[in-house]
Structure formats: C-alpha cells, structure tokens
Amino acid sequence: MTGPVAAPPRTPPSRRGRWLTVVAVAWAVVLGVLGYVSMRSDPPTVRDQRSIGEARPLVDRAVGELAVAAGSDAVLSISRYEVTSGCRITPIRSGETLERDVIVYTGQTDGPALLDRIVDRLPPSYEASVRHGQQHDTLRADAGEFVSVRGGVTAPGIVIITVGTGCRPPAPLGVEVPTPSGEDRRIGDRMLVALGGTLDDVTVAEAPCPTGGTVRTVSATGSRSGSGKPLREVLVPLFGSAQGGPALIDTVDLYAYRSDEAMVAVDAEEDGTLGASVTTLC
User: Mind listing the domains of the chain with CATH numbers?
Assistant: First the structure.
C-alpha cells in the first residue's frame, strides 16, 4: 500500500497580484476623497444635493435683487420665510420647500412694463425673461442652484414674484428670523388704530441688497368693523405726502404710495380684515 499523498506546497502570491491589490485599494481611496471634495465644493447638478438651509442664502439674495430691480417708481413689500413640508423628493423620501414673495404695486396699467424693467435690471446670470400674452404677463428667472424666480401680474397694478427652492432635504435655515422691535409694534398699532381697527400681529422680513444695506418690511394685521375713513386720509398724516405725485394705487380697499420715509401699502378687505406694510429699501 502506498501512503497518503502529500498536498503540493502553496504557491506564494505573485508580486504582480499584490501590486494589483494595492493599486485597487489606493484608487478606491482616491475616488472617495474626490467624491467628498466634489460634494463639498462643486455646484449641485440636481436640486436635492442642497438642503433648504443651504439654498436659503440664494433665496435671500434673489429677494434683494428683485426689490432693487423694481426701482424707485414702485411700492413693494417682501414676505418672511415660508417653509412647507410634505413634498416628495423621491417616492420614499420626503422633503420641504422654502419660498419668499416680493409684492410690487404700480400704476393700474403699468404691471407689464414693470416686469420688463425688472428683467432688464436683474443680473445677467439670472437669464430672466418675460412673456406677455392676452391673458397673462409672466416673469421667469433662475437664481442659481435650482432656485427659481416665478411671477407675474396678478391684478391691475399688482405684481407678485415668488422665489422658491423646490422640494429639498429638510434642514435648519441657518439664520435668526428677525423679530419686530418695540418701534415696529408702535408703527403697526398706529396704522391700524388710525384705520379704525385693532392690531393682531406684527412681523418683520429682511433681505440683503446687492450693493449693501437691507430691504426691510414691517407688516401689521388686524381687523375693524365698518368701512372706516378713506385710506389716504389716514396714511398721509402718518407718513407724509406721497413722493413725486399721487399714490400708485388708490382704491376703496387698497392704497399704495411712497412717502418721504418709506413705501406704504394698506389692504382693507370687505370682511373687516386689515393688512398694512411699511418697507424701507437699502
């Protein structure tokens, strides 16, 4: 009988195989580092690569650009941050949207021309455009990194433009939301009391201007019973006469004009709801 056959000795791994393993590991490390650097520094290629907190500065900048582009011949107000949850980034991934509005008041028939002026004054990088039709006059622009600028004429003499992030990953906004000062509350109370109403709330919204400074809107809401005095009889004594002529809008329920101190707008609804804004620009 023959004894057990010994297994052949193992062949040590070749030098070439070891080098292939080292190269593969090194290449994986390089790709990981490049991916991290790209994620941190390169501009996004899809919207959900940036959270609403990371997109918030672009929204603020666009609001400031729009406020300045509206020019000195209009009255405007800006809104606070509006964060809405419940949108879907993917079928299994939820997100949030961040939006801010710029509301511009002009002459009853001047809305389409105002859109043209805003488009001409926005930065070239926004690639802003305007479309005039029989039923609608609209504006479109891109503030960068998938932050959209959309708006148009919503009523005679009224233009509303919305800056929005679209659906993105939720995140803190990374900025302290401004709160009204004691003087802001006094101004709001004076306005609504003069209109024959009572004050419910005062809010503040701010955005940076492109050349420095801040556009700031103080908004007051409240209610009253009855029709009250004509709006012009109330506002002009509080804020001074209108600059450069009559008010831009002067109707029973809406009054908008530029005073010596600020841009003022008041909306008095038939149901007694009152809304007033005072805006200072840069």
Answer: 48-164 (3.30.2030.30), 182-280 (no CATH)
